[in-house]
Amino acid sequence: MQAYHELMARILDEGVPQEDRTGTGTLSLFGAQMRFDLRDGFPLVTTKKLHLRSIIVELLWFLNGDTNVRWLQERKVSIWDEWADENGDLGPVYGKQWRDWESADGRHIDQIRELVALIRKDPASRRQIVTAWNPGELGRMALAPCHCLFQTQVAAGRLNLQLYQRSADFFLGVPFNIASYALLTHMLARECGLEPGVFVWTGGDVHLYSNHLDQARLQLGREVRALPRLTIRDRGQDLFGYELEDFVIEDYDPHPHIAAPVAI
Ligand SMILES: Nc1nc(=O)c2c([nH]1)NC[C@@H]1CN(c3ccc(C(=O)N[C@@H](CCC(=O)O)C(=O)O)cc3)CN21
Ligand SMILES: O=c1ccn([C@H]2C[C@H](O)[C@@H](COP(=O)(O)O)O2)c(=O)[nH]1
Question: Which residue in 23, 31, 41, 74 is deepest, having the highest Cβ count within 10 Å?
Answer without folding.
Answer: 41
